[in-house]
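Ticket #4471: structure output looks truncated?

Reporter: J.K.
Steps to reproduce: submitted the chain below (230 residues) through the standard prediction queue, then opened the result file.
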Amino acid sequence: MTEILAGVVSALWLGILTSISPCPLASNIAAVSYVGRRVGAPHRVLLAGVAYSLGRALTYVLVGWLVVTSILSVPGVSFFLQQRMNQVLGPVLIAAGLIMLGWLRLPGVNGHGSGALEQRLAGAGIPGAAGLGAIFALSFCPVSAGLFFGGLLPLATASHSKLLLPASYGIGTGLPVVVLAALLALGVGSIGRAFDALMRFERVAMRVTGSVFVLAGTYLVLTHIVGFSI
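Returned output as attached by the reporter:
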């Protein structure tokens, strides 16, 4: 029970970090602001933010479920992970931590989707906001890719969690967006101050989490690959 709770909290935290990292955060604010101007009334701005968050969260849940299910459904891969998961997880955690710290960059990853489709969805009101969230969820930036593929998926695979941890991660990605949508409904000044506060928090949280990932990965490498007794 303790391991499950720790996994859920970790996945939720990774989701929050994904949502407030610079590239996704800028996309989230731009999308919610643009859709908000289209839907008009403040309560509809909040609904658009919720719809956008749900679209984004459900996409992460679906992708996570598909990847983890595919990995665990291959007998050879599943057996290998059961026997060697700690050896695999160590280098993966180090790489993910280095990405979070900005010391390692992923080539060929960007945060841009299909501009024309985004415009059409943004003009479709609240239902379109959900589709916009789904598209932006698939437009991985380097840090969000590191958190999702290097953080969540190894964690979910190691715990054989096909749905719970991806769902926790998806919820985590949606929470900051709902808060931003609520602030946007209250006034532009509020969201500006919230953006500044989130950026300051993100820099500290990303460094701390990245350092923890590197330390944890190093421990796993030393104990399960090098063979040191710590």
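Triage note (M.O.): checked the attachment and the full token line is present. The chain has one domain: 2-226.
Status: closed, working as intended.
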